[in-house]
Each structure stands twice: as structure tokens, then as C-alpha cells.
Here is the input.
Amino acid sequence: MGTAAVSIEHLGYRYPRQSNIFTDLNLQIEAGERFGIFGPNGAGKTTLMHCMTGLLSFQQGKLSLFGNDIATNKKETNKLFGFVPQDFSFYQELSPVQNLEFFGAWCGLNKQAIKQRTTELLEILGLADVRNKQVQKFSGGMKRRVNLAIGVIHDPRILFLDEPTVGVDIQTRNAIINYLKELNKSGTTLIYTSHQLSEAEELCNKIALIEAGEIIAHNTLDNLLSEHKEDGLEGLYLNLTGKAYRDGNV
Amino acid sequence: MYKLWATIKKDISVLLRDKVGLTLMFTMPIVLAIVITTIQNSTFELVNNNKVPLLLCNRDTGDASKQLITAIEKVGMFDIKQVTQNQTDKEIIDRMHAKDALVAVIIPANFSEKIVANAKNISGKALNNFGLQADTTKASADNVEPLTLYYHPVLQTSFRLSVNGALRSSLQLVQNKQILKSLYFALNEKELPKNLEDEVVNENVPINEISVSRDGTRNIPNATQHNIPAWTIFAMFFIVISLGSSVVREKLNGSFVRLKTLPTNYLVALISKQLTYLLVTMVQAICIFAIGIWLFPIMGLPKLNLPSDLFGLLIVLLICGWCAVSFAICVGVFAQTQEQANGIGAVSVVLLAAIGGILVPSFAMPASFHLIIQLSPLHWALEAFYGLFLEGGKLKDILINILPLLIITILIQIITLWGLKRKNLI
Here is the structure.
């Protein structure tokens, strides 16, 4: 077995002055997987993703990306992954080219590499015609594509995606999903979270369901469906997490 | 290095898109400098160039009053308009209300007679004291009727006191002359010779006026030399509105979350912001100085004279700009929202300007403020600028002001880094 893209052992995390979110969480995500993390609101999906991206410092356990401990080797691990947050994480005052130039430099790319990747990405994601326009004036779908382009500018080995298609039209969603599949084929491990279960079914080959900070199911989608005698992810989800409202902590 | 360059490019692009912020950073201090200088210029001209208009009503017909008028003329600070002796006090007051004059002096009737009598009385007493026989004619010992001084209420106390002092000095001259004449007559039974009178009365101890400017020049301070440095400092610190908001905006929008996941330290962003906005403060200073040098003379205001030590000026500008930028970033790091950054930034800069002597001169503040004044970076910046612009000093002369400014800047930087660390941002 090769090195895991993500290895989480006995992870413990709690927000200041709050009870534990995770007490002893263990998870392995293999390189090349299209991994989906699902669960109701407040289950701990975003917290887990923020622990994996180093945005949150966990109190116990070990988390490594391709064998690099995230707690002790943050700079190296940060080079390994890209992150596409749910919010638009760029400068709306600037153009796509200006954003990619800036974030590319922060990813450690040189000027030439940035220029090449920018041309490539804007072409693939259908933004070449608006490359020098201010992003502020873009539609939601275009902004999502800019958000994605920035996340992959440095050709990361792992890509974390937090609801990457929320609020976009069918065409944009289709384009993004197809691009992500292409990216995965070229070797990028995708770690994805969303409430769009049909989209998740289309994209993910392995999933984990989280409930109250614990992983209650972790397998390939096919195995989980046959194990729980369900014919779709939505049925499986409701079967395992119940139908009650989950409003999280208020 | 490329990361830093790309970040500076990004910061400049973001800044150029912020038209409102840019307008505020440049037009606000320029407007303030022009308006305040114009207003203050008339006050400076009044003190330095103009004469105080004075209405003089002489109801006396004797020599002493004429001597008093000559003495007042010789003071040189009054533009005397004599009014006829039959004008009433009320008519004179009405003329003053009509802004015909700020000061009026009324010499009472029999002034000369009373001055002469008073002089004879004093000289008689003096001679008796010396054991000499005084004139047997009994001089009238009535008190001299006082001069009346009317002054317009707009006249500042210090200015009124200097007018009062000038009149008193003129009056003293006339009285001394009369006493001398009286003494001489009593001893010699003849009039005091004119040459001796001039020698005794006018031979005053000379006063050497020496300007304390470090380069020996005697530049009279004007509103431009005072206001341009002061409002340049204010403008530099007012970038807190744009820069403080920019830091908060970056923290609040998603870009900051992404920056934290990238293999570059946020310090690069901070250094970039400092360099970008330091450049802005330099451009601000150049604009305001250019206005002082070229636009003010066209507007009839005094021209700004740059100090002889231009290198010293550059150093002060750089340190002052760095301090302003550090302060703005500090506000941005600790503020939770843009509204907080704008509010705290604007109020704190106005407060620091007030206690720093930008709005009110430091020497005019109460003694209890003297320690607080020293906490304001604007105070040290202003002192350094005045050392160059008004005192003609060199860099070595203003090190005593630059060092505290530098220490305050470093302290602000440390607080900022502590804030970033505490919030897990670096």
C-alpha cells in the first residue's frame, strides 16, 4: 500500500470554551481518490476540512498529508494541497489574471509558470474572454470558476473542495464537475464536501459520513449502498443520519 | 522576492480601485491645509506685518499729550487715526463696532496740566529728600486722570496686553521727561537743554534681537510654514481609514482564509502593505509640499520654503510615514469590522493630532497634558518638522524627536505582531 494522501490518527479537536467536536477520529484517504465527506449541519465536516488544511490547530492526535506531519511541517504540507473554500476567496476588485498572479506567487510559482498556468486554466474554465475584467462584475458561476482556478494554480497533489458548486447553474456545475474528474485522472486527490448529494454521487468514488464528530460510515459508495440496501446516496444519508432537523449549536 | 513584488502589485491594484479611499487620502488634507492656512495667514499677518488700527481722541491741548502721541507713533505697532476732540465716547465705541479700529485711546482734557503738576510734585519731594530747597509754589497734587483704552472684544488677551504695554511705555516716557524737566528747572532755574533731554530720555539700554533659528536666518514664521508640515502629518496618519479598512476587509473576506493555507507567511502581506502605503504617504507629502510651493503664492498665501537639509526632511518623512502605516495596520488587525476600523481610526487620529499639537499648539496645553503629549507620535513628528521648517535645523538637531517617533513605531509593530500571533494569523 502506498503513502496515504491524508492520514488522520486519534484526532481530537474542540473550539475554545466548547465541548469536543472530535475525540478520537481516525481516517485514511488514499492518493488518487475522489473522497466525499458528508453529514448534517454541525456534524463537523467543515471543522475536519479546516484541520486538514491547517486552518485550525487540533489539540490531539496526528494528521499528515503524504507522510508530512501538518503540525510540525506546515510550510511543506501547504505546498501539497489546494483549497477551494465555499466563500469567494479572492480579491473581487481585481481581474482573474491579477488574482492568479498574486495567489500563484504565494503558492511559490515563478512568473513564467504563473503565466502559463493562468492561460491554461482560464481557457479550460471558460474565462479567457474576461481575463482582465474586474471579478466583482462577474456572475456567481464565473466567480465559482475563478475560485476553483486559484485553488489549482499550483497543480496541487490534493485538492480540498468545500461546496464548490453552491449557487451555480447546471452548465457551470457540469463544467466544474467534469474539470474535477479530469484533474483527478491526472493524479490529484479530491476531498470534497457538499450537500448536493446527486453531484456527490456523480463525483465521488469513496465517501465518509460524519455524525456528531464521528465517522459512522466509510467505504466506496457501491459497497455502502449494498451494505445498507439503498439505491442512492440520499436514501443512505437519511437512513444513517435520520430525518430530524440539524441546526447545529446556536 | 517575487512573492513580495506580486503582493505589492496586488496591493497597489486594490488601492487604485478604491477611488473613494484615494480621494479621501489626498483631497481631505489638501483642503484642510488650504483652508486652515488661509484662515491663519490673516492672524499671522496681523502680528507680523499689519499695524493695529487705533482711534486716538486727544481732548487735551497741552504739550504732554502731543509728546504722548509722538511716543505712541514711535512704537510702530499702531495705525493711528486721530478723531476730533469733541467726539463722544459713544461715537468712538460705535466706530469700533463698525470695525473702524480694534483699539481706541482717549487722552483726557487737562492731561498735560496734570502731568506737569504731578512731575513738579515728584521732583519737589525728591529735592526735599536730598535736603535741597524745592520751589515754594505748591503744585497741585491731584492724581493724573487716567487714559481711557477701549478695545474690541475680538482682540486676544495676549495682544491686548501688548497694546497696553506699548501705551504704558509711551506714557512713562512722557512722565519721565516732565519730571526731568522739572528737576532741572528747580536746580538750574532754566529750561532743560534739548540735547541733554534727548540724551537722558532717549538713551535706552539697547535690546539685541537674535533669532534662535539654527541656521542663523531670521525667517518670520508664517501660516504656511506652520500648517503644511502639520497637515502633512495629519494626512499621513489619516490613511488609517483606507489601510485599516483594507486589513479588516482582507481578514473578513475569504481571501484571508486562502492565504492562511498557502506556503507563504502572512508577514509578506504585512511588509507589502507597509511598503505600498509608505509610498502613498510619500506621494501625499510631495503633493502637499508642491501645493505649498507653487499653488499658495498664486492664491496670495506665503510660499512654503523647504528646509535646507533635504536629506533630513526625507528621513523624517519616511519615519513619520512608517509610523502612520504601522498605526493603521495595528488598527486593522485589532478591529473586528470595517466600521470599527473607520471609527476607531478616525477618532484616534483626531485625538492624537489634538494632543500632538496639530490642532492646538502643545505649549498652550495644560501642564497635566505634558506627559500625554509625549505619547502622541504626531507630536514628535511635528516637533521634527518644525525643527527643520521653522528652526532651520539639520538632521542631527532633530534626532531627539526622531528617536521617540521610531520607538513608538517599533512598539506599534510589536503590538501588531502580538495581535496577529494571538489571533493565529501568523
In short: The beta strands of chain A are 4-14, 20-30, 34-38, 60-65, 68-69, 81-84, 158-162, 189-193, 206-211, 214-220. The longest helix of chain A spans residues 170-185.
